[in-house]
Amino acid sequence: xxxxxxxxxxxxxxxxxxxxxxxxxxxxxxxxxxxxxxxxxxxxxxxxxxxxxxxxxxxxxxxxxxxxxxxxxxxxxxxxxxxxxxxxxxxxxxxxxxxxxxxxxxxxxxxxxxxxxxxxxxxxxxxxxxxxxxxxxxxxxxxxxxxxxxxxxxxxxxxxxxxxxxxxxxxxxxxxxxxxxx
Length: 182
Hints:
By secondary structure, the chain is of the alpha/beta class. The chain has one domain (9-172): 3-Layer(aba) Sandwich (Rossmann fold). Helix content is 34%, strand content 16%. The chain is built from 6 helices and 6 strands. A 6-stranded parallel sheet has the order 3-2-4-5-1-6, with helices on both faces.
């Protein structure tokens, strides 16, 4: 059933840039409207993401967030580790448990950053993902970001936005830039 208030499931997916950025914009909008917001950063361990500094230092107390996953960026080379370990799976499940706490604590908007990716990679099973979505309280808005959203997740969604890469500076040799890309 479609609600006129909060309570929908939004999916931001695709191979283009901007999924996390769009969800953070929605976070700012919800905070401005006095809503309680929670964010789970799935599979984004370490201290490589500038948006967390803003959430903590500038919006401290207005947005609750939890970071899961190991630090995949090598501090010396900047190379990204794409391997999947048991620790990754444990951390993804911890993210689900932390999100359930947001359900209990009455958050109006919950951003599950990289949820689609952790489900697509099997860090959580498709069934675990769907079971979690089925637990969503009726007036909690969920935003799921990440590439490769599973068909079962798309089926549950009320809104799907696909970010499409048309051209990206990475392919011209520009490396990820702090403050713009992470």
